[in-house]
Amino acid sequence: QVQLEESGGGLVQPGGSLRLSCAASASTLEHFTMGWFRQAPGKEREGVSCISSYDDEDTYYLDSVKGRFTISRDHSKKMLYLQMHSLKPEDTAVYYCAADFGNTVYHYCSGTRSDYWGQGTQVTVSS
After folding, report:
1. Cα(67)–Cα(101) distance, integer angstroms
2. Quick one: which of 30, 33, 21 has its CA closest to 80?
3. Tens-digit pLDDT profile for the chain (127 aa)?
4. Which residues pair with 1 in a beta bridge?
């Protein structure tokens, strides 16, 4: 069983930055691919960024966030992060932390299913 709790969302002006954090409660996160997904009003949930359990360099980014967002994880603290820069109004959404056992980064982030989800944190980009 994995419990995930996000924090760090909020209201930010266009061009601003936010850092999302996700605290995982689990005996181990070994073999769990982790990621950030988002869902805007009236739109389907989409994978924003995912990271491998085995290689922190094995990551995936949605094309629209490449160069602006950075995913990272702290294995010892069981934390997942998403650093977001140059935020745009179209980044406005509820952001979910997620974990999936044994999946590949690309396959996981390209889909919409996950073994575990956090409750979500709202990110609003507006002037």
Report:
1. 27
2. 21
3. 899 999 999 999 999 999 999 999 988 888 999 999 999 999 999 999 999 999 999 999 999 999 999 999 999 999 999 999 999 999 999 999 999 999 999 999 999 999 999 999 999 999 9
4. none
